[in-house]
Amino acid sequence: MERSGESVQAKAEERMVMEETEAAKMAADAEKTEEEKIAGDAEASHGGERSRETSAAGEPPEIMRLEIEGRSCNEAFARVVVAVFTSRLDPTLEEIDDIKTAVSEAVTNAVIHGYENRGGTIYIEAALSGRELTVTVRDEGVGIEDVARAMEPMYTTDCTGERSGMGFAFMEAFMDQVEVWSEPGKGTAVTMKKRIGG
Questions:
Q1: CA distance 84 to 96
Q2: CATH code of 34's domain
Q3: Is 163 among the residues known to form the active site?
Q4: CB 123 within 8 A of CB 135
Q5: What's the predicted TM-score (pTM) here?
Q6: How far apart are the C-alpha atoms of 169 and 29, rounded to whole Å?
Q7: pLDDT number for residue 186
Q8: Do strands 187-195 and 62-69 pair parallel, antiparallel, or not at all (unpaired)?
Q9: pLDDT for res 69
Q10: Active site residue: 74, 75, 95, 105, which one?
């Protein structure tokens, strides 16, 4: 029996959500391996003098860049990747949940409003500078006419009644700072900042 495109997509989304827990478990082991590699590289190139404090105080931020297709099934993947990247700062579970929620909202906005469910590339950049995480989620979609109005709680351009208009409100609630740049016809960039560990 053939499956429709819709049921295949639904199955893929369900599988992605189920795999998220497993990905989070694997993140700890992967992060430990990465930290050991970084420590080894640092010792080799700096004679073992480089420390986490020195890195936080004076060195350039650590940066991760990711490009994903603008489809709702990639939202869970994006938030797990950013969470794993942030895990090197040893955040609390609450901080990780906050970050994942904010990234989910930003990616969902790009899929639904930026690209209007027609697909396109979503660009995600995360940077760690000291104890601060900065995440930018950018699309090259339709853009926003009035950013201030779009950021008002309950405002939505979705006519189906499925969207609550709380995306930006959630981002602002879970992150320390949210900035939105947008230009009609050129896309939107949402930059969010959060200090890890108080």
A1: 9
A2: 3.30.565.10
A3: yes
A4: no
A5: 0.67
A6: 34
A7: 95
A8: unpaired
A9: 96
A10: 105
Residue in the block written with tokens 């998220």: 20
- Options 75, 79, 109, 138, the catalytic residue: 109
Measured CA to CA, the distance from residue 152 to residue 38 in angstroms comes to 43
Residue that the structure tokens 């930003």 belong to? 106
Q: What is the mean pLDDT of residues 82-106?
A: 95
Q: Is residue 50 one of the residues assigned to a domain?
A: no
Q: Which helix (H) or strand (E) holds 63?
A: strand 62-69
Number of domains in the chain: 1
Position 130 pLDDT exceeds 80: yes
Residue with tokens 């405002």: 155
Mean pLDDT of the region 40-47:
40
Residue 49 inside a domain? The answer is: no
DSSP type of residue 185 = T
Whether 50 is catalytic: no
Range of the structural domain that residue 76 is part of = 5-44+60-195
The rounded radius of gyration (Å) of the Cα atoms in the chain is 18
The alpha helices in the chain, defined as continuous H runs, are 5-46, 52-58, 75-86, 93-109, 147-150, 167-174
Strands 177-183 and 62-69, sheet pairing:
unpaired
Which residue is catalytic, options 52, 71, 88, 163? 163
Pick left, alpha or beta for residue 165 (phi over 0 → left; psi -120 to 50 → alpha; otherwise beta). Answer: left
